[in-house]
Amino acid sequence: MTLLDSDLHRSPSAIVLIPVFNDWEALERLLWSLDETFLDRDIRVDILIVDDASIAPAPTELKFFSFKAIERVNILELKRNLGHQRAIAIGLAYIAANLNCKVVVVMDGDGEDNPQDVPRLINCCQAESNAKVIFAKRTKRSETYLFKAFYLVYKLVYKLLTGHHIQVGNFSVIPYQLLSRIVVISEIWNHYAAGIMRARIPYTEIATKRSNRLFGRSKMNFVSLVTHGISSISVYADIVGTRLIISVSVVVLLILISLGGIVSIKLFTSLAIPGWTSIAVGILCSILMQAVMLSIVFALMILNTRNSYGFMLGQDYYYFVSKLKEVFSREVLSK
């Protein structure tokens, strides 16, 4: 895959990375909002849209737009649909391999990540001497009460299984100097934010409010949301497995103590044993066998996780890239 020579010699202040699947109407409005946000600021911005094998074609009228702050808009087309997390991972790998800038902004294309917060994230990154990833921590969400309830359950399960809190999504700013470290984190293939946290990349969070979609309705259904949650937990597979082994071991110990108590009463006392005791013992033995089997399965999963190499994003991303298409350039318009 070739790269335009001009890409190697120009260096915008920021590259905004936006994964998109069919949500072109919302994206157009987001680009206008971003352009207005950066218009009065001395920030050169390029946009890299990762088209996650959309069914609906990308709009052709972007080349006629008259952006004032946005220098260039490129679409990186993928060969197949991979999902937002993997589209982000491929976009980051592409930028690290082919482009240069000061910071990379990662945000969704539906407008729920408020463009007005982008300068705040960039300023925070500069205040941290470009040494930390800056995540937007959502203090107020715009979803339904049912979604919020499930989200609380997800955070509780995440905390119990991994031992960590998670209150951030994709919306973030990455210093370019950290990008080479991030694209070798195979875990971001499953979950971008959790992968960075698991790899102990320095990061901090700033409070933001989630905005409303700019157009249409979310295409995420309940199954997709559950899959997304499981993907974030899978980043900590070995820790989750270890915690489950400990939990199962505690259950096994309690079962053995219960069985020992029943046998002791039967052999060493004159107390009457109820008729249901034999049924209870059978149930406990069945649970014990299943607990032991689960422990073995978890142990094998941990060994497999620790002994196998993950997907090498930095060197393998291009297998999924179809082509890079320039859809807007101020340089072309000025000629």
From TrEMBL:
Alphabetical GO CC annotations of the entry are: plasma membrane
| TM spans (from-to) | 245-268, 280-303
Instruction: Tell me the SUPFAM superfamilies matching this sequence.
Output: Nucleotide-diphospho-sugar transferases (SSF53448)
Ordered alphabetically, the record's keywords are: Cell membrane, Glycosyltransferase, Lipopolysaccharide biosynthesis, Membrane, Transferase, Transmembrane, Transmembrane helix
**What GO biological process terms does the UniProt entry carry, in alphabetical order?**
lipopolysaccharide biosynthetic process
Q: Is the keyword Transit peptide in the record? A: no
Q: Which residues form the Glycosyltransferase 2-like domain?
A: 16-148
An example of a GO molecular function for this protein is: glycosyltransferase activity
Q: What is this protein called?
A: Glycosyl transferase family 2
Record organism: Chroococcidiopsis thermalis (strain PCC 7203)
